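Box 3.1 A note on notation
Throughout this textbook, protein chains are presented in two layers. The first layer is the amino acid sequence; the second is a token string describing backbone geometry. Keep the layers aligned when reading.
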Amino acid sequence: MKNEAAWRETKFVRRGGRLRASTDLREVIMGSRLTGDCIARLYDEYLPRYAHGAAADLGCGTVPLYGAYRSHVSSVICVDWSNSSFETPHLDFECDLNGALPLEDASLDTLILSDVLEHIARPESLWAEMARILRPGGVAFVNTPFFYWVHGEPYDYYRYTEFAHRRLAEQAGFEVLVMERIGGLVEVACDVFAKSASAVPVVGNPIAALAQGVVSAWSRSSPGRKVAHWSGRKFPLGYFLVARRVPAPPQA
């Protein structure tokens, strides 16, 4: 990871002992704060369990999750394409993630692919490349949106169900260890409301912040988790998964 000493928190910050979406509007727009909080909670839970060894952050941007995984891995390689809308001062390799990755076979133990797969025109190719560069037993962390607005135009290509995620992972030689729905009907409704409200001059951002704060607290409560678990089967805000590279079967 280049310029490691210059890294700073951007999209995600650690406050009160937990990972959260930044409240800096230059990093996270007001209407996306709830979504960021939901994603942050999942990485905060699962990175300590599964991240290990040599890691690569694919589609890294400003490497917003670095603060969450750096203590669990031994090294980090940052990879992104030239179409990134962010400055990428930590980039080790610039390449199109739709094609071959400039990384050696079986050289890594952990991959991060956060809010990236929906922007990949050839997802099967990227999954195959992830399988190639991971050692057997290595893990990939992936999250994508589902009921979510069009973003990163014109490179927003897909929305994946959990069934599509499993199919892509398993076809590439992975087993899915974790499949979590991000939020449910309440979170989806709040996200749409917050993004709409934040466009209203003067009063929009405070209203959006209040709504997301209330729903974020609700989402962490026992009733909120139960409602999200039930309603997320049909109305997920997104998906989060951890997939492990399985050894290739021995050749006859």
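Residues 23 and 70 are 22 Å apart (CA to CA). The two ends are 40 Å apart (CA to CA).
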